[in-house]
Amino acid sequence: MTIRKNAFSVIERVFERHGATALDTPVFELRETLMGKYGEDSKLIYDLADQGGELCSLRYDLTVPFARFIAMNGLTSLKSYQIAKVYRRDNPSKGRYREFYQCDFDIAGPSEKMAPDFEVVRILTELLEELEIGDFEVKLNHRKLLDGMMQICGVPPEKFRTICSSIDKLDKQPFEQIRKEMVEEKGLTAETADRIVTFVKEKGHPLTLLSKLKQEGSAFLENAGSVDALNDLEILFNALDKSKRLDKVVFDFSLARGLDYYTGVIFEAVFKGGSQLLLVANMIT
Who's near 16: CB < 8 A, 6+ residues apart? Predict the structure, then answer.
């Protein structure tokens, strides 16, 4: 508890330094508010017993409650943070729990293009440095770029999200196992699965890999969504470079994130060597 308290005090200090106010939401939400927001992971939501009234479930994360709070109160903009417990009806592996804390920093409302993404990535790197818990890197990708990759590889549009969910397991399972899942369980052809592996192996310095993807003849330049993503990433990478934060970032095509509501930049911080601690964030448009 002492370690947790000290960590939370550092996190709160950084969040408040960047202008966020504290937010608290109920531990349970209306079931209809939560269902359909998490794709395949919706099966991990804890449903509460029917008390003869409204059907409720324990919150799966802090993002949907934040969005519900914004909509319910008719807010047009808000910068807030929330540190609270969330729940997953899972059979957790080592280091994962059914009840655990999330620390959310959320920005809602109009802003300059890519400014919130830049601020959140910057906050993430500041947090990890001030917590002084080891060397780390921030893996980063863009969901529109992933969708473009799916289209280039021949994945049917209705399978984009479920294939993203498979790709997201690459940090825990070998590709052959993921390939088997995509072909035998999710109905992709072997050729399509093999095309995907050629892309998800791409990883490197953000500006270097971005330049490669924007070269003349790149298949991504023929996809409107991918072009938008590449332009977004160019703005983000240049901003991070100017703020001396780009050295912590790795452009990683294998990063997918499985939840359906991820629509833009996605990233997670992984500690180098030894045990890993994962911090995930996303932007929702």
Answer: 81
Burial 167-186 (b: 16+ CB within 10 A, else e): bbbbeeeebeebbebbbeee
> Who's near 180: CB < 8 A, 6+ residues apart?
none
Q: How many CB atoms lie within 10 A of CB 260?
A: 18
233 CB-contact burial (10 Å; exposed 0-12 / middle 13-18 / buried 19+): buried
Per the DSSP assignment, residues forming a β-bridge with 101 are 85
Give the chain's end-to-end CA distance (angstroms, integer): 36
- Is pTM beyond 0.85 here? yes
Q: Are 268 and 278 in contact (CB under 8 A)?
A: yes
CB 108 within 8 A of CB 78: yes
Q: What is the pLDDT of residue 29?
A: 95
Which residues, 6+ apart, have CB-to-CB distance to 252 below 8 Å? Answer: 139, 140, 141, 202, 203
Computed over every residue of the chain, the mean pLDDT equals 89
Q: Which residue has the tokens 């109920």?
A: 26
State the Cα–Cα distance between residues 209 and 230, nearest whole angstrom.
Answer: 11
**Residue 105 forms beta bridges with which residues?**
81
Calpha distance 153→199 (Å, rounded)? 9
